[in-house]
Amino acid sequence: MDTHFFDRIPTIESVRIGLASTGYIPSRQISTAVFLAMRLGKPILAEGPAGVGKTELAKAAAEFLGLPLVRMQCYDGLDESKALYEWKYGKQLLYTQILKEKVSAVLSKDDTMDAALARLHEFDDIFFSERFLEPRPLLKALQEPKGAVLLIDEIDKADEEFEAFLLEILSDHQVTIPEIGTISAIVKPVVILTSNNTRDLGDAMKRRCLHLHIGYPDAKLEEQIIDSRIPGIEDSLRRQLVSFVQQLRGLDLRKLPSVSETIDWARAILLLNATRLGTEVVHDTLNLLLKFEGDMTMGGKAVGEMVHKALRDGGVEA
Amino acid sequence: MTAMLLDLLRAARGAGVRISVAESIDAFRSAEVVGYADRQVLKDTLSLTLGKSLEDKKLFEDCFDLFFQREMVSSGETEAGSRSREPGEAGEHDGLASLSAMLLENDQAGLAAAMEGAAEAIGASNIALFTQTNMFAWRILEQMGLPELDRDIAHLRGEGADEATAERLEQMRAALGQQARAYMERQLTLFSAGTTRDIREGALRNVRLSQLDRRDMDRMRALVRDMAKQIATRYSRKRWQDRRGHLDIRRTMRRNMSFDSIPFHTIWKRTRIDRPSIMVLCDVSGSVAAVARFLLMFLYSLADVLAGLRSFAYSNHLIEVSDILARREIDEAIEEVMKVVGFGSSDYGRCFADFAEIAMRNVNRQTTVIILGDARGNRNEPRIDLMKQIFERANRVIWLNPEPQSLWGTGDSDILRYEPFCHQVTSCGTLTQLERVISEMMQQAQ
Fold first, then answer.
1. Which pTM value belongs to this model?
2. What is the ipTM metric for this complex?
């Protein structure tokens, strides 16, 4: 790892401040994970429910470190040619067509087949050089001159083969392209993998990573997050919103509202010019928090009670 | 610090966190980076490196807290501990052993440190079974200087000089004994959790399913679920495999028609990997009542992790239960299945007829049919013809019989008549056998 990283983040606290300056409020574990990842050069594997800020973490880290973010979205059927590199096949073909005459001119001097072939061999590196190489995210991240933050999103969606293929890059920070040779990272990238846990990742993969579980934040942290994302919001209203969402997470719902939904909801409440929570306004905007019909009915029933408690938590007389 | 961290790792392993050697190295490296000063940070750090799932993290963090709760007791520095164990060094209580002196001075820190030191000297962390608690506690006291203490008490009494002090020491001696026992109990929870659990689980895996106790249900359920999950993740992942390097000429030509058939876009051949389609018929009749729950449990776990599994339950008739298993929680599902078809007297002929009606048309060359049952049909017509039909249509038919092989064919058992129409008939009385058979089967189904 480059030394300038170390100067930027002498302590865990400095990571926290750095991330916070980009508007991402990390929990203690998150800042520790980022700190360790950079010191040890290990990838972070962030797991947790959707919408708690796994992808956001990578963006914030890139911004705070001043590095470009290279993002790779995983999906079923993703393979090396889409993740690592591909030959610009069309370009190669086009160039051979254009250079046809040049080639025949070069070859015209030779009268035997053997001689022509030998001459042709002298040029074969031309078409398999970096000029005809299309870098895909992984290679791009390795080639960034100052290093990069490489985000491998939803690794659980990719198949096992791809996971195995990643191991090599994650541990050695280099790739081998048969025609060219081995390309090593100029500066080791900071790697963040995210997973929604739709399938279990291999032990080998987990072993190489720092395993970070990002769960739903507690009330205090969530308030800080809301505060940083929606600067103008009133203290009391913010407390009410967070208290309500925290109560909602206690219910038996199919999809619990996550932080991103709290933020959306807070924005909506502000747009509606509400200064405090009320049963009616909550009912109208509940669809921002809950995404399933069953959840809506279940949540809807408890609204009155939860609003009451939220108002008390916010220091407002119901 | 190294020894402390090693002890912690050992305790964590005992608690059920899987930690490999490479991971311990990682743990040491990261602990060095963050330092040992802040316990909270250390906990976060180690949890990041060692925990590989949410459960692991929880286990580890609990273990960490327990471990350092123990350390807290010995808040005194170790130097104090080693010094206080040296004999003949006491201020106002001249002529008394160091232990007696510490007791009289009520030097809690010193005592705790001495206990810690003694525990280390006798290797207290090797405790494995709860029956050893007293023995280890006694050894700790001995190491701390109990004989000298007893001598002091006797001395004080004998001279009659200081009956009150002797009395006090006597009380403190009893209290110290309790402390040592409590200390060893903590050690036991820290270091032996793994051993006892391993012994128990190892035994559970190999005990005959029909002999299982009700109180082992929970543990069994976890084992069964793990097993099913392991099997499923091993075999159900890929759907397509690229055969790189084999050009699909037909499709490439078609794709590049607009370029005068100059192949700008290449299409490679790939093969479809068939997910095995599996049907499981599970006996829940009275004759296998003891095993039925576990078979259902296994079925439930398998259905949970394997898409496209169809499950059936039967006793005197047969119904499809895929739906029930998919919708309900495990306990409810098992209850419901048992309520609908459970405990009847088996009639295999009727059941095969039901099966033929419900699902025979879906049995094809990709299908594996697994039958779990003892083949005891109460002398009803076994309908070998239907079995033959299934056998001819399916890719594989596997019969798993919970009875040991020696009982096959005795009494009303029809297993030997069914046997010719199965690709494989295996006795599977224990969980280990069940796992092996299913795993083999999945391999062949690929």
1. 0.64
2. 0.80
